[in-house]
Amino acid sequence: MSESNSKNGSDDIYYALGTITDLGNLADLWSSIYSTAFNWVNFALNNLNSLEDYQKINWGKIDFSGWDDDVYNNIDWGNFDFTDLKKATSYANLNWGKIDFSDLTELAYKKINWSLVDWADLTNATTATLEGIDWGEITWNKINYKGATMDAIDWAKIQWNELDWTGKGADASAIDWGQIDWNELFRASTDVLDGIDWGNIDWKEIDYKDNFASDMDAIDWAKIQWDELNWTGKNSDASAIDWGQIDWGELGTPISSLLGGIDWGEIDWKEVDWSGVGADAANIDWSDVQWDELDWIGKKSDAAAIDWGEVDWSKIDWENPNIIEDINWKQVTQSELDLADIEIIGLKTNATIEQLAATL
């Protein structure tokens, strides 16, 4: 049933293809199977016919580094016991990009220690392999969001529509949104991005710091489904976003259907940078603003927070037949306007601000 073979200076026993036919005798062969010289390529893997057969092997003792495609293709990964992989070295030696995840059961997914998985293997996997992954079965709260894992995950290849987005134990609540590579994510196709539930991202976790390494520099604000966000309330998405750090120039160039999802009255206008080089006000596309959504009355209103002298009145959507009625002219601080602003307003409305205010 076996023969001795000297391989690379070793006298370890290896088994030729077809010589092992009875896995009931594997108990007598442990020392050879767990040897680094054991030839898995020539091992009759098609004899692993049942869960019982797979349970006879302690997979944590196997050296996977010598496995080729033939070995990976012949393993029934649904019967593979991932709990045997106790050490990081076992996870490192296993090529996760060659595993047929479509074989895995829900229980098998739970047995994987996702903090030890080599995500770089998955990044380089074939499309077929990636499509076989049930992304909703990955234990996202077990991933190491502070380590090298973040550099290895290709966020653009995740099927976001398979994740559980709502509820106490949702995948979305387990993900550290301040650690993902947003630059990489927004390279994904529209179909992939459509799978994201933007209203269940924790916007408080985002890095709003004003530096090139921050999330602000990487997020493509033109591709966000704004209508999915939670706009109202103390803990709303709108209150978590730092409106003084987003790229207003980028925001002004989205598909119109996306832009229509913004609740302009829930933007914190106090956070906007109104003056200076590169100020937000200079990059806002004022023709997009839905003026009728703003809060106009009171010391803490949107109107009180806006620096009316920094509004580009030439870019207001004057073609909108309701524009004059949508703006509460009584709340436009005239002292902040310069002569050019007043001239544009007069030219477009055929009235002075006093006259416009008197109509309210």
Give me some keywords for this one.
360 residues, two-stranded antiparallel sheet, rod-shaped
Report strand %.
under 5%
Described by the principal axes of the CA atoms, the overall outline is: rod-shaped
Main sheet characteristics: 2 strands, antiparallel
Helix content: 25-40%
C-alpha Rg (nearest Å): 30 Å
Mean pLDDT: 85
Question: Oligomeric state of the chains?
Answer: single chain
Poorly predicted parts = 1-24
SSE arrangement, N to C:
EEHHHHHHHHHHHHHHHHHHH
Put simply, the count of helices is: 19
Q: Strand order of the main beta sheet, please?
A: 1-2
Would you count the extended β strands for me? 2
Distance between the termini: 98 Å
Structural class: mainly alpha
Question: What do you see in this structure?
Answer:
The structure is a single chain. With 360 residues, this protein is mostly helical. Among the domains are: 154-285, no CATH class; 290-360, no CATH class. Helices cover 26% and strands 1% of the residues. A two-stranded antiparallel ribbon has the order 1-2.
Secondary structure layout:
Layout lengths: L2 E2 L8 E2 L15 H4 L17 H5 L13 H6 L13 H6 L12 H6 L7 H5 L3 H6 L16 H4 L18 H4 L7 H4 L4 H4 L43 H4 L7 H4 L4 H4 L20 H4 L18 H4 L17 H4 L12 H11 L3 H6 L2
Antiparallel strand pairs: 1-2
